[in-house]
What does this fold into?
Amino acid sequence: MSLDAKKVARIARLARIGLSDDEVQTYQKDMEGIIGWVEQLNEVDITDVPPMVGTGLATARLRDDIVTDGERRDDVLSNAPEREGLFFTVPKVVE
Amino acid sequence: MVFDYTLASARDALRKREISAVELVNTHLEAIERLDGRLNSFITRTPDQAREAAKAADDLLAKGEGGALCGIPLGIKDLFATEGVRTTAASHILENFVPPYESTVTANLKRDGAISLGKLNLDEFAMGSTNLTSAFGGVENPWKRQGSDARLVPGGSSGGSAAAVAAGLVLGATGTDTGGSIRQPASFCGIAGVKPTYGRCSRFGTIAFASSLDQAGPMAKNLRDCAIMLESMAGFDAKDSTSVDKAVPNYEAALDRGVKGMRVGIPKEYRTDNLPEEIAALWDQGIAWLKDAGAEIVDVSLPHTKYGLPTYYIAALAEASSNLARYDGVRYGKRVTGPSLDALYEATRAAGFGDEVKRRILLGTHVLSSGYYDAYYLRAQKVRTLLQRDFLQAYEKVDMLLTPTAPSGAFAWDEKPTDPVQVYLNDVFTVPASLAGVPAVSVPAGLDSTGVPLGLQLIGRFFDEETLFAAGHVLEKSASFSHRPTLHAGVSA
It folds into this structure.
């Protein structure tokens, strides 16, 4: 499968990573190489094989629906790159 | 001489009061001061906290109290969140991140009295096999080729951990292993490393790369030291939904069990056409050592081995793209502003992530995107089932597997291939066990013809780390690996 520059730019947009046109070219070349290499998996017969989701060693657990860790507002905000009072701030989203 | 201590012998000396924790910690801090400007194994040093903790440890030891690791100086891979101490994942995007909480693994080590000297360098977000992708610069392997001063890589991603232990700057270090990130650097730096069964150590507070594969483990001079550390690090944690509620055995007690009557599998698929002759020879030597100690050697087949690496890269990159979506410049971490929220995200992530991390996020996003999910991600998950079955079927015949740890010894910084696929091949022998979730260890077994260390890997059954400690200790005793790297705290400059 080929990955053209347009496709790489679209993937970068989905991943919210800003790329220059030059970077798109570089990543396109690398990604094409890697994708070509992983396509050897197409040789494997996977008929009736279930997908492995985790190792199956841990079992899902239920716990009581109660607060076990809270009242840590200042901790949560302590690494905010920008904030106003008790709020994280972002550029205006709604006109 | 302080730098001759192993973790175990230092523990015993501390208890007998032959040395104080303050002296032990100060001597190691002084060695870091002396050597680490060059090695660059630490990202953040915490000497003041370490000295304070050492005083407190001495108070406990004087009363005959203190946990299993009381007064022992360790290094912590900078992927474990440490409360109040900067935690970077070797990335610009977290260069000023100070966690308000502690990872479970480091909390366990602290509970048992271990003293952290600081946070150790790694590949950015643990993505790499060379430690050269760190935003804080590469790490120099303390080993040198004979007659050459070329800077060698320590392996990765736990390269700072491996280099710091090998150079004698700490008595042990935490590592994390997603596809070989404990075992390969342990092999490159001539130390022991343990990747436990998936679910043995809690992932809570360990910065996530690929959550279905990430597993913390110990790295130290030998397996006894690793056993002591793992017993402290492991255990059930309600804060990690993949943590397994299973009692932690006394790993140290397993070391002297021997291998008499045990069956050791030799997977034929690991004997690849391009395996260097001296690594094949060392592997044969390991087989002979285990046989001499009374083990039965059995040829086995893991037929899907060659699909391990491509399966790993699809699974790991897909999970990474999802895990790293959280770095958005809003709640913590670096922010680069822009005119809109999307522009802020794009600028932040463009500036905050390095090249390898971006490449992996982009690939992971691609294999998960609509129209490609079934062809790549779902297919890889199915092949992963087959890879796990290979191991489970082998374990019907054998108790463990013996293989080389890596297809080469440490190479020079400027010998790193430019093709990403060639770099990924470093993990060819370590990735399958990660995908299956089974435990594995690497022990130093010899030097190659250029004088750099080579490791052997033992892979075991789920939660049977004890057998690996027993068999690994047989290898250690047979190899009697006592070589030291050129750059070592015990060698005065």
Summary: Chain A has a mean pLDDT of 92. Strands of chain A lie at 83-84, 87-88. The CA atoms of residues 39 and 81 of chain A lie 41 Å apart. The helical segments of chain A are 5-14, 21-38, 73-77.
